[in-house]
Design a protein that fits this description.
alpha/beta; Spore Coat Polysaccharide Biosynthesis Protein SpsA, Chain A; Jelly Rolls; 3 domains; 6-stranded antiparallel sheet; 5-stranded mixed β-barrel; 11 helices; 29 strands; globular
Length: 464
């Protein structure tokens, strides 16, 4: 049976305005200064083919206005494309995947579809190839295999999968529930339970199974997709659709059309499986995620012709103009063809950790002030810092503090000095959150100045 990647490149281009537009939406933009997200996706599939072999060239489903972008960017990275299905307008992901499944049926009878989005960033390509290879084996058994991601922080913009691990498999889970964009509070509880994954929106299944599921749960969408392709030349690389039928299709996502309905029916819910990616992943859906993922020295991200001095915690992007930035902190500036976005980055200064989160309140040369919130029952690692000392002031709750071989409790308004190089840990054994101010001083204040001796979350010295 053939293995057929399907790349979905729809989207209106509004989320990263003004850089992303309807003419050049997010998948076709480069954020690393080298390749666009679409090109990274093509190269990810090339590596997957090298890893497992027997992969067909991908089917691309995109807006008809983006055909030249698809062809030009694929040619620049020397990636071959099997077919490009051109949609007259955006109809969301379920119709797009259905069109690809019908094409596979017409050309091959059946196949394993690898449905992936074109606008995501995955840090560990090797792990991705390994887990997709495992997912293909699971999909052969008439299962729908969702690609979940181990969450690193409570992001309210993502969908979540509630899972149970299947005992006979190392990395196969049964999907018990879909949770769409929970509150931050609920997301924190879900992550602490360790029973949830982020839903990446990528999944693997047989094309024949997808068509049966569409016939069951969204038959009118299936009917109009079939009619849209009825008079198309399916032997051509470029496949145009009949707009008189396509424009009748109701826009609907894969999750809403099929997956969430499967979960509610006994006949189908056992077919919902998931694999887990542990590498860094993001859908780069907002400027704060771009900044978090690509920031470098002084926590800045610069792209374009930028002149800067004494800039911190900021993102500055220019496509056409020269931008000069001096003595600013926590600012996002994005320019494209004379349109400019300026917004604060203050909302992005909260950093989630397994034990809770911290906020940066102030930072200057040689000193930094953080507010730490440690959840009930959680603790930092037993750690030391080579280049900084710390002063803790308890503002809420009761802290169990270890410094070298001594352990004692600190109450509200109590404080303690942690010398440079000393082993230390802080724990919250009470029911309410523990809050404290951490004042850091030293020649180097970055998060990688850490040596861990014990850690309940199994983090290494290189993780933060």
């Amino acid at each position: 049976m053939i293995i057929q990647p399907v790349i979905l490149t729809g989207g209106s281009g509004k989320r990263l305005w003004p850089l992303s537009t309807s003419d050049v939406p997010k998948p076709f933009i480069s954020f690393d200064g080298q390749y666009s997200l679409f090109q990274n996706t093509l190269q990810r599939l090339d590596k997957l083919n090298t890893s497992i072999g027997q992969l067909n060239n991908p089917i691309i489903v995109c807006n008809q206005n983006h055909q030249s972008l698809v062809n030009d960017q694929a040619e620049k990275v020397k990636s071959a494309i099997a077919s490009i299905i051109l949609e007259p307008e955006i109809k969301n992901t379920a119709p797009a995947l259905t069109l690809a499944a019908i094409l596979i049926k017409k050309q091959f009878g059946d196949g394993i579809m690898i449905s992936i989005h074109s606008d995501q960033w995955i840090s560990d390509e090797k792990e991705f190839s390994q887990e997709i290879s495992n997912a293909i084996k699971i999909a052969f058994e008439e299962n729908v295999v969702l690609v979940g991601v181990e969450p690193t922080h409570p992001n309210p913009q993502y969908g979540y999968l509630k899972i149970n691990q299947i005992k006979s498999s190392k990395n196969e889970y049964q999907v018990k529930e879909f949770v769409e964009k929970p509150s931050v509070h609920n997301a924190k509880k879900m992550i602490r339970s360790k029973n949830y994954l982020w839903n990446s929106g990528n999944f693997i299944l047989k094309s024949s199974l997808w068509l049966r599921l569409m016939e069951k749960f969204a038959p009118e969408v299936l009917k109009q997709c079939e009619s849209s392709l009825k008079n198309s030349n399916l032997e051509s690389k470029t496949i145009n659709l009949d707009p008189s039928h396509f424009l009748k299709i109701k826009p609907i996502s894969i999750d809403h059309a099929v997956l969430e309905k499967m979960q509610k029916e006994n006949e189908y819910k056992s077919k919902l499986s998931a694999i887990k990616l542990s590498s860094q992943w993001t859908d780069l859906g907002e400027w704060s995620s771009i900044w978090k993922f690509f920031k470098t020295e002084n926590d800045n991200y610069f792209k374009g012709n930028i002149s800067h001095s004494n800039v911190r915690n900021s993102l500055i992007v220019s496509q056409n103009q020269i931008i000069t930035a001096n003595n600013i902190t926590d600012v996002f500036v994005v320019e494209n063809n004379g349109e400019i976005l300026i917004q604060s980055n203050q909302t992005s200064q909260k950093f989630d950790k397994p034990w809770g989160y911290y906020e940066i309140l102030s930072r200057t040369s040689g000193q930094q002030i953080k507010k730490l919130t440690i959840f009930s029952g959680e603790a930092t690692s037993l750690q030391s810092h080579q280049f900084r000392s710390e002063h803790w002031i308890i503002t809420q709750g009761v802290a169990k503090v270890t410094v070298e071989k001594e352990t004692f409790n600190l109450n509200q308004n109590d404080s303690i000095f942690i010398p440079q190089g000393s082993k230390h840990r802080i724990e919250n054994s009470k029911h309410e959150n523990l809050c404290l101010l951490e004042i850091q001083t030293g020649v180097y204040l970055e998060e990688d100045d850490i040596t861990r001796f014990e850690d309940k979350y199994a983090r290494t010295n290189s993780s933060t």
